[in-house]
Amino acid sequence: MPDLPLYNARADADLALFSNPAFRPTGVQKLGLALVGLGLAAFVVALASPFGAAHPVPFALAAFGGLGLGGVVYGLGGLAAPAGVRNEGTMVSSNEARGAVGWAIGLALTALYVVLYFWPAGLAGLLPLADPLSRLMRDQPATLGNGGQWFLYTTLYTLAVAVMGVRALVRYRHSRYHVIRTLSVMFFQTVLAFALPFFLVTLQQPELYVHYTWPLDYDLFFPWRVAELRAEGQLGVAMLVWGVVMIAVATPVLTYFFGKRWYCSWVCGCGGLAETAGDPYRHLSDKSLGAWKLERWLVHGVLATITAATLLLWVAAVAEVGWLDAVAETVSWLYGLLIGSIFAGVVGVGFYPLLGSRVWCRFGCPMAAILGLQQRFFSRFRITTNGGQCISCGQCSAYCEMGIDVKWYAQRGQNVVRASCVGCGVCATVCPRGVLRLENGPDVGGASRAGRPVNNLIEDLDILA
Amino acid sequence: MHVVIVGNGIAGVTAARHVRKADAEAHVTLVSDETATPFARTALMYVYMGVLTRSHTALYEERFWAENRIDRVVDRALALDPDRQRLALRNGGDLAYDRLLIATGSVPFLPDWPGAGLDGVQGLYHLQDLNRMEAATVEVERAAVVGGGLIGVELAEMLRTRGVDVTFLVREERYLPRVFSEAESALVADAIRAHGVDLRLGAEVDRVEGQGRAEAVVTADAERIPAGFVGVGTGVRPNVGWLGDAVEADRGVLVDAALRTSAANVWAAGDCAQLREPPVGARAVEPIWYTARLQGATAGLGMAGRPLAYAPGVFFNSAKFFDLEWQVYGATSTDGDDWEWTDGRRGLRIRHADGAVRGVSALGVRLRQAVCTQWVEEEWALDRALTDLDAARFDPEFAPALTL
């Protein structure tokens, strides 16, 4: 479109740095940003100098306190604006529209993941900062030898969900659906993915992730892991049984009644990060048909690969065929590297500000693939369109984090039933005309009446088809 | 058969789609000088606000036009010659047609205040209006919006997102009195004021002052309100001036029940059309999105040889006043009594007469169109409708109950 309005024409200039004309931070928000800046500075100094190791407690306080408290203060600053859908300026924001700030954050996150996975020694300067908390939570120091870098990572991850969760709670406070859903992901991350597992480590028990199962926990059913868990005793065996129950019973039943959202935007840690820290980037998902095609090949391909790798490992283990064992080991190692590390971490989170917050969930997650197939073919869940009310404004599609062209359905009056939909509900929230509704009730009463012609002419003319 | 459609708003585009659906062979040409890419006019405000980019507002993806073999011509229609069946274009010469649809929409109506011609005084309808507004509001810190209609409130919202101080001048003593009950007017006024808009009810504009461009609005009681931009939302008029006397027109192009004009092989639909005999519940000129869509479909099928009477069924419309959504079904302002509920933030009103529901108006409550339509169509008794309220609700899960 050549004749762009000035707002968009100026966008290139505005995306340079902090010059989004719709963003006018309040005093509270500026204070929050300053504290976040302090936290980041503490991390950088600790990383690049011996000061962090020499004074771990004050540095830990400044780093985690700055990020945590600053983020919360910044989020609470949103209370100054009236409750409601506040997306103004999103498309011209340097941070949110792939401007300089967005690129800087994307590169920094990507670098962090690359170092974490492939050169953990590079994080040595930061580990002392995690040390006090590590001693408190898992009764051991944070060192490279005992996975201290993963403790640090999980701590930062949980902090991001909690802090940006506060921002999401403020931002979506007009909608109880979003408030409850956000509290849910915050609970699962802080308690079930952080506090409980590390507490169990303190008790000399295996780390237990109650809400996390195969195929997301991709090596759960690998022969060596099964042997390891059985050796752990009762809790280990219980974890195995629980893993089987989760994927074989809980998942199909809950997905039948509620759609895949029960997991993807209420429970899952990846989803939790996407819905909180990733919320500012949700609109950056690719809506093209090509992306949809790629999504189906990739996500189902990953599911097929991990299923095949698991089976292969068992065949190799049971049949004790040496060369098969080598092949299976290679496949599972490659899976861990390419999918577990590079796809889920580096691309999945590192590229938030460039490709949106659900790249991993959409293109890579094998759990999402299973849930999606169930949702598409065996679920009551749907997004219902309210008669002929769509004004084609495009906000539903624009803000869909899964890249679904919701408008395509809405303006045709069709219900949206898509494998990828995580049921976050944002399409329905941003719709200025109340056209969309997430439903999973049986199709009776009002719901079935939605199937009757809403308007004779619409029906006669087949206007929506 | 060559079908030419003048105007690529929702009426024109819907007509083009329906011609194609009913006739695989027809040659369809869509003419507009506004933009090559038909877009949702209702979303213009969101582009200004930075909520959307232009590409989000496209009605269909680019491939849609090739797949449906709809040709798009960016040119301005200057005149129509129905005898020779030709349309004169500014750049493209004459375009011959077999069937023609006039779907040229509206133009904003500006009252003849002194100073109405100054730069920075404008309405909002076309993309070009948006671009002008973009340029006119660059360094503006204070603005006025005149006219309490749906465009007026959109203008106020747009300006607020740029941090502009807005004085909103509405002539009536309460907000949209012909549409809302007193309680509803109050809810809407609260919603507007919650965003820092200085809403002045009962305020009449006398003139706009400025040297070359707007600097202030002066009200009838001589108050001078500084305003570097004056948004005008005092209504729209059918865009029919270009037609001369090619077809019979009153306010809009006069059309029969099948949306045919006085000229052979010429139809009209949408904002620019005026029904000679409006069906019950419809107005002769109805410049709203949904009816333009229905008229476009009707005319499209008519041009493809499947004439149908325009029968829009139970009326519906919707809007959003800053954060407050509004839906309306049926007749909510005709004779009758109101059953009304509000909790101070949301409101629900059912207009009933002769023991039957006539219309439903909801503020901050989402309703299901199918259910409300059924109440009105089948003339449900008020009590029965109230017991059916759960089925009518379209609010998201966990939304607070309506404690009646």
TrEMBL record, chain A:
Membrane spanning residue stretches: 31-53, 59-81, 101-130, 150-170, 182-203, 235-258, 297-319, 331-355
Gene3D superfamilies given in the database record: 3.30.70.20
Record keywords, A-Z: 4Fe-4S, Electron transport, Iron, Iron-sulfur, Membrane, Metal-binding, Transmembrane, Transmembrane helix, Transport
Upper classification of the organism: Bacteria, Pseudomonadati, Rhodothermota, Rhodothermia, Rhodothermales
Protein name: 4Fe-4S ferredoxin-type domain-containing protein
InterPro entries attached to this UniProt entry: 4Fe4S_Fe-S-bd (IPR017896), 4Fe4S_Fe_S_CS (IPR017900), Electron_Trans/Redox (IPR051684)
Pfam families: Fer4_5 (PF12801), Fer4_9 (PF13187)
Matches recorded under PROSITE patterns: 4FE4S_FER_1 (PS00198), 4FE4S_FER_2 (PS51379)
GO annotations of cellular component type: plasma membrane
One Gene Ontology term of the molecular function aspect: 4 iron, 4 sulfur cluster binding
Domain of life according to the entry: Bacteria
Domain 4Fe-4S ferredoxin-type: 381-409, 412-441
TrEMBL record, chain B:
GO molecular function: oxidoreductase activity
Lineage: superkingdom: Bacteria
Keyword entries, A-Z: FAD, Flavoprotein
Residues of the FAD/NAD(P)-binding domain: 1-283
Cofactor (UniProt): FAD
Pfam families the UniProt entry points to: Pyr_redox_2 (PF07992)
InterPro entries assigned: FAD-bd_OxRdtase, FAD/NAD-bd_sf, FAD/NAD-binding_dom
Keyword Transmembrane recorded: no
Recorded coiled-coil stretches: none
Gene3D superfamilies for the chain: FAD/NAD(P)-binding domain (3.50.50.60)
Flavoprotein keyword on record: yes
Protein family membership: Belongs to the FAD-dependent oxidoreductase family.
Name listed for the protein in its UniProt record: FAD/NAD(P)-binding domain-containing protein
Species per Swiss-Prot/TrEMBL record: Rubrivirga marina
